Amino acid sequence: MIQYGIQNAILECDLAAPYINWNKYSTEDFCALVESRCRWVAANLYAGRATQPTSYIHLRDFATAMQVAPSRVLELVEYLGRLEPGIRPKGILLHESASGHFPFEAAPCVAAVRAVMDGVGWTGTGTGEQDNENQGQANPRGGRDSRSSSGSSSGSSSSSGFVDGALLVHVTAGYGLAHATVLECLAAGCTGVMASLCEEAEPTSSHASSLLDLLNLSRLGNPHVAAQFDMEQLRSVARQVSAAVRRAEQKRHEQQLLQQQQEEEELEEEKLQREAAAAAAAAALSQQRQPLILGHA
Fold first, then answer.
1. In a domain, 290, yes or no
2. Residue 39: which domain range?
3. pLDDT tens-digit map of 147-166
4. Which residues does 185 contact at the CB level (< 8 Å), separation at least 6?
5. Keyword annotations for this protein (predicted)?
6. How many domains does the chain have?
7. Is 269 a member of any domain?
């Protein structure tokens, strides 16, 4: 990261992973490990820029962890929220599998995390336009978020411009519940989504796209979406992205066909060469054999 000048880090955390021996390593040990990584980011990724480095915590097994070890998740969130602002991550990224939770099951999990963050002053609000955007994304029903009022600052924003205490959700596809899960998570306390603009933008990872989430918020009467985003422009960009992805897929498919054809031609050529070599060897062997001539003395 230092070599390539990467200033902001996403720290991947698994809290329900079977490869971790939780009988040997306590939650306090895990929290201390994550803190050490946050301190490393703050100390080493400055890179001479005008803004401080920023880290985010990605709870990539959030849905499973909240089912099997919810206290472990909340203890980590509280621990990180109590770190000094210069070390504390700017937010948490939740990986929510739509096949792992129903929407109504995901909402209380998000609300529990949000409550812990708010309880330690990790408020997830910024100033001005950032507040309006967070309000618009955090409440799909169009009401005002209880953590901020009238666009005024009720939380903290970092000098780097990142909202401190952001809670973003990434919902993978599963049985048609992905976007409904996103709306429930936003209503329960998430301040935004971590997703591509359209679903075609990342063919290898099917998940709820941000454009459709914004459209859902807008059609449900949320006034902040239209004020913050040019939906027509976003739709136009999404169409361009989809077209570009389709062209790339078509090109990749053509390259695969060409490669397959070349491999088949090479195999056929090798086969012909082997057959020719076998025929030449047989001819040479026949020439080496001398006929036996029997005569009378």
1. no
2. 9-194
3. 332 223 333 444 455 678 99
4. 94, 96, 106, 107, 110, 169, 171
5. Cell projection, Cilium, Coiled coil, Flagellum
6. 1
7. no
